[in-house]
Each structure stands twice: as structure tokens, then as C-alpha cells.
Amino acid sequence: MPTKAELKALAKQPKLKIRKGDFVKIIAGKDKGETGTVLAISPRELKAIVAKPDPDNDGQLIPLNAVTKHKKAKFEGQRSARFKMPSPIHISNLMVIDPNSNEPSRLGRRVEDGKIVRYAKKSGKTIVDAPQMQEKSK
């Protein structure tokens, strides 16, 4: 059973306006100005992982805000390696791209047809949610 402190923390979690699959622009940090797609969101930490497609490698994803990790060889004959790993970005450093004007825009919420939808404040257009990947049933 969760403790009282854990229940309070869960109650204070804000409703995030950025969602998985959104096309966003990074407005602060080392990759400022880059655009990419949100791959994952962590609502508890208010962070997101963003990547963009690589035009040279058949659209393979390049992580934005990547950090370089070093792996030392453990056995003889094995090679040491450096590889890029995605690092989460705080959601305050991201802005959703307005689908109408391709400019970064703040988001708002309004009720349309009895549902709460997100809209771009710059153009007033509704932002369509990215389709969620369905797990294959066995």
C-alpha cells in the first residue's frame, strides 16, 4: 500500500501537454533549435526523450541531447567502444510544432464534441494526437 507521501506526490503530478509522438523543437540546451519526435515521456520527472530521423542512414533515429558512453573491453580480443545514448530533456525546454504554420507554439486545452483536445495557441488549430503503437496479440 502506498504511503501518504507517495499519494501526495501522485496527486501533485501536472497534466503534461507534450505527448509521445509529438513533433517538437528544442528551445534550450546544447541541441537548441533542433526538431524531432518525442519517443518517451516521464511524467514523474517531467522529462522526455527526443530523436530525429537521419537522412543518410535510411531514416534511422538519431537521439537529440545525446551523451557519449564509454565501454571498456573486458576480455582479450574484445574492443573498447564509445556510443551515443539518449539523455532526457526537461519538458520546459521543448515546444510543440504548430501543424498549420510549422512554427513552435504554446499549447492550450479546450472542449470539442465533449472531449478535451489540445490546440496550438498560435493558430488556434487542434493538434491531432500521434497514433499509438498497438501491441501484437498472440
Please give the radius of gyration in angstroms.
19 Å
Instruction: List the uncertain runs.
Output: none
- CATH-defined topology of the domain at 16-102: SH3 type barrels
**What oligomeric state do these chains adopt?**
single chain
Q: Quote the average pLDDT.
A: 87
SSE order: HEEEEEEEEEEE
Straight-line distance between termini: 33 Å
* Helix content bin: under 10%
* CATH class group of the domain at 16-102: Mainly Beta
What global shape is seen?
flat
Largest sheet: 7 strands, antiparallel
List keywords for this structure.
single chain; 138 residues; SH3 type barrels; 7-stranded antiparallel sheet; two-stranded antiparallel ribbon; flat
Structural write-up:
With about 140 residues, this protein is mainly β. The protein has a domain of about 90 residues: SH3 type barrels. Helices cover about 5% and strands about 40% of the residues. The protein has one helix and eleven strands, in the order H-E-E-E-E-E-E-E-E-E-E-E. The strands form three sheets. Strands 1, 2, 3, 4, 7, 8 and 9 form a seven-stranded antiparallel sheet that branches. A hairpin with a 2-residue loop joins strand 10 and strand 11. The radius of gyration is 19 Å and the shape is flat. The two termini are about 35 Å apart.
